[in-house]
Amino acid sequence: MKILISTxxxxxxxxxxxxxxxxxxxxxxxxxxSHESIDGGCGCRxxxxxxxxxxxxxxxxxxxxxxxxxxxxxLIKRSITESWGTISDDTIKDTIQELIRIAHSFEIGSIIxxxxxxxxxxxxxx
Length: 126
Hints:
Blueprint: E1 2-6, E2 27-28, E3 48-50, E4 56-57, E5 60-64, H1 69-84, H2 89-104, E6 111-115, E7 118-121
Antiparallel strand pairs: 1-5, 2-3, 3-4, 5-6, 6-7
């Protein structure tokens, strides 16, 4: 199973990049401000949130998961409930399915970014 983790690779390609997560931390969705533009000051529409630190990054990497499916589900569920409180099992299930769907859309090792509802590969420059 592929998952998204935080990375500092390609940080700085965009002037509004940031990474406050732990290295290689599994990622999940945060919340989006209602009227935030993709490049707005908050950064919510271009970032993902660390499952352990609850902090955000604008750069993600696709890896083969070191977790079993059950471990990954527990991690994401715990992270979401720590941040948002009680959430329905259906919402958790839908969120995890979407995270896995996005990760499986890319090759392992791809560095990707979020631009609103779109995820795309970043060019890695040396």
